[in-house]
Amino acid sequence: MPTIVVEVMPKPEVLDPQGKAIDARLPELGFREFSSVRQGKRFELTVDGEATAEVLDRAKQLAAQLLANPSTEYIAKVEVAK
Question: What is the CATH number for 7?
C-alpha cells in the first residue's frame, strides 16, 4: 500500500520554541555549521489502492482542512513516499 507524506511547518513569522530550544544546543554539541532549526510535523497517510493524482489532491485537501492550522502553519510538502 502506498503512503502519502504530508509535512507541515510553522510560518516564518510564528515563534517556534521547540526549534529555538534545539537551536540553542547546536553549538554545545559541536554542530556549528547549522545556523537555525525550525521544527515541523510529519504525517503519513496510508492509501487503500493506488496513489493517483486524485488521491494526492484529496490528501492536500485533508492537510489544509485538518492537519495544518492556517493561522500559524503552512503545508510544506504533500507527496507519495518513495
Answer: 3.30.1280.10
pTM of the model: 0.87
How is residue 73 written as a grid cell? 502553519
| Count of structural domains, the chain | 1
**Residue 28 structural domain:** 3-80
31: Cβ contacts below 8 Å, ≥ 6 apart:
none
Q: Which amino acid is at 29?
A: L
pLDDT tens by residue, 21-75: 999 999 999 999 999 999 999 999 999 999 999 999 999 999 999 999 999 999 9
